[in-house]
Design brief:
alpha+beta, two-stranded antiparallel sheet, about 160 residues
């Protein structure tokens, strides 16, 4: 009866996309789904769908995710899991190079955690009072919209 929220968040801590999954589901396969939901409107033309870099925690570390990011020319700031590192080292030179990791950029990942903190200030979202996944996801999108509106009204 639990659920997991996968979110893409911009550098200011505002949500760009949400994906809701069952609580027992793994994080790693949802990475590309969340990434594909990002749409940032441009002043003219098509919306932007490719961020410059993606910072994620170890749960999203996989070869498939890294290959996907490399193909789209997105910098991956994802630490390598210890078992993946051990497996790569065990293979020796056939295991490949160590993954690139920028600790300075990874420090900015706390914006995702702060975004979740702002989302969970709504009691209904924090306690998961909506039992239907559709209703809960609608609440997530509503809360995200309000966060964006607050930023836009402060800017004017």
């Amino acid at each position: 009866m639990s659920s997991k929220i996968h979110a893409a968040v911009d550098a200011a801590g505002l949500p760009l996309a949400f994906v809701l999954t069952p609580g027992q589901a793994a994080d790693c396969p949802r990475f590309i789904t969340v990434l594909n939901k990002i749409r940032i409107p441009a002043p003219a033309g098509r919306p932007r769908t490719r961020p410059d870099a993606v910072a994620a925690d170890k749960a999203y570390s996989s070869k498939a995710n890294r290959v996907h990011l490399r193909r789209r020319r997105i910098i991956a700031v994802i630490p390598e899991k210890s078992d993946q590192r051990a497996n790569r080292k065990r293979k020796g030179s056939a295991g490949g190079r160590p993954v690139g990791f920028d600790p300075g950029r990874y420090r900015q990942r706390n914006t995702v955690e702060r975004c979740f903190q702002k989302i969970k200030t709504w009691r209904g979202l924090a306690t998961r009072s909506d039992k239907a996944p559709e209703s809960y996801e609608a609440g997530l999108h509503l809360r995200g919209s309000i966060m964006w509106l607050k930023l836009l009204t402060l800017a004017t």
